[in-house]
Amino acid sequence: MMSLNFGRVARAAHVWNRASFHSSAVVSAKAYPLIINGKEVESKAKEFYDVFNPATQELVGRVPLTTQEEMRAASDNAQVLLSIRKECCGP
Question: What residues does each domain of the chain span?
Answer without folding.
Answer: 23-89
